[in-house]
C-alpha cells in the first residue's frame, strides 16, 4: 500500500519541481480572464461607469511620484477625460489603473478586452493597427530619433551611412514601428547583419550607450537619457516626425466617439491650458516645448 501511494506522490513532487524550474510560460488569457469595463451604453443608462485603464509604466507618462501616487501625461489626460465626462455629461467615471510592464502583452490585452478598457502605452497610430484596435484622437506628436554612441560622427548624408555605422549593429525594440525602421536601414545598408532585439527602452538605451549598436527611439526617451548623462547622439537627418500617439481601445468598444468628443470639445483639448500644463509638469519645460512645437 505504501509503495502504491509513494509513486504517485513522487511523480507529483517531481512535476512541481520541474514546473518551478521551467522558464516562465507565455500567458494566454482565457475569456474568463479578459480585461473588461462598463460599456458607454451602461454609462449613459446609469450615469456612471467603471473603466479599466491598462498602462505601461514610463517616466513622464505613467509613473509613481515621490508621494507614491500614479501620475504622468497619459494618466492626467485620462483624469481630465473623467472630469469632462462628469462636468458636461453627468457621467461619473471610476478609473481603475492596471500596470502591464510588457508592451507586447499590454497591446494584446487591450485587443482581447471587452467593453470599457483603455490602453496608455504611447502607441503610434497606424492604419494597420486600426484593423486590430480603436484609437482616440492623437494626444501627442512624436519624433523618432536615430541614435548612437556620442563618439559616432553625425550622419550628414545617407551615402555616408555604411562608413559611419560600419562598426555598429542594428538594435530594435520588438513589436514597434522602430523595429520596422531599423529593419529598413539594415536591409538597405547592412543586409548581412542580424538585428538584435530588446523589450524595454532602458535596455535599448544602455546597449546603444555601450558603443556597439544603433537604434531608433522616441525623442523624449533620448532626451531624458542625455539629461541623465548617457553618452548618446542623435542623427537629425534620420529623424521621423510624422507619427502621433493615441490611447487604444478594443475593437468592440463603444467609447470611441465619446473619447473623440472630449478631444474636440472647447476648441480642442490639445489647445487647452490644462494640456500644456500637464506636458510641462511631467516632461519639463524644454522637452514639452520641443514636442508641442511639432504639433
From TrEMBL:
SMART domains referenced in this protein's UniProt entry, alphabetically: PBPb (SM00062)
Pfam families: SBP_bac_3
Start and end residues of each Solute-binding protein family 3/N-terminal domain: 50-286
InterPro entries: Solute-binding_3/MltF_N
Residue intervals passing through the bilayer: none
Coiled-coil spans in chain: none
Keywords assigned: Signal
Presence of keyword Transport: no
Signal peptide segment: 1-20
Name listed for the protein in its UniProt record: ABC-type amino acid transport substrate-binding protein
Organism: Alkalimonas amylolytica
Amino acid at each position: 500500500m505504501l509503495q502504491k501511494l509513494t509513486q504517485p506522490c513522487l511523480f507529483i513532487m517531481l512535476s512541481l519541481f520541474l514546473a518551478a524550474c521551467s522558464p516562465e510560460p507565455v500567458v494566454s488569457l482565457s475569456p474568463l480572464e479578459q480585461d473588461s469595463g462598463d460599456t458607454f451604453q451602461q454609462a449613459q443608462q446609469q450615469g456612471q461607469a467603471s473603466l479599466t485603464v491598462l498602462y505601461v509604466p514610463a517616466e513622464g507618462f505613467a509613473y509613481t511620484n515621490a508621494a507614491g501616487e500614479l501620475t504622468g501625461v497619459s494618466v492626467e489626460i485620462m483624469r481630465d477625460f473623467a472630469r469632462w465626462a462628469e462636468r458636461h455629461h453627468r457621467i461619473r467615471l471610476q478609473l481603475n489603473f492596471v500596470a502591464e510592464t510588457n508592451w507586447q502583452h499590454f497591446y494584446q490585452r487591450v485587443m482581447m478586452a471587452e467593453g470599457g478598457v483603455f490602453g496608455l502605452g504611447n502607441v503610434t497610430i497606424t492604419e494597420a493597427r486600426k484593423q486590430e484596435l480603436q484609437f482616440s484622437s492623437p494626444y501627442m506628436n512624436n519624433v523618432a530619433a536615430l541614435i548612437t554612441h556620442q563618439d559616432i560622427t553625425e550622419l550628414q548624408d545617407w551615402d555616408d551611412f555604411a562608413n559611419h555605422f560600419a562598426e555598429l549593429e542594428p538594435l530594435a525594440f520588438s513589436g514597434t514601428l522602430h523595429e520596422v525602421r531599423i529593419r529598413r536601414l539594415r536591409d538597405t545598408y547592412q543586409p548581412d547583419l542580424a538585428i538584435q532585439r530588446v523589450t524595454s527602452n532602458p535596455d535599448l538605451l544602455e546597449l546603444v550607450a555601450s558603443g556597439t549598436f544603433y537604434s531608433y527611439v522616441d525623442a523624449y526617451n533620448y532626451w531624458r537619457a542625455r539629461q541623465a548623462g548617457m553618452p548618446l547622439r542623435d542623427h537629425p537627418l534620420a529623424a521621423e516626425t510624422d507619427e502621433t500617439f493615441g490611447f487604444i481601445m478594443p475593437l468592440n468598444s463603444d467609447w470611441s466617439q465619446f473619447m473623440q468628443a472630449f478631444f474636440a470639445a472647447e476648441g480642442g483639448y490639445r489647445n487647452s491650458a490644462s494640456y500644456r500644463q500637464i506636458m510641462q509638469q511631467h516632461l519639463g519645460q524644454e522637452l514639452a516645448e520641443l514636442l508641442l512645437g511639432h504639433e
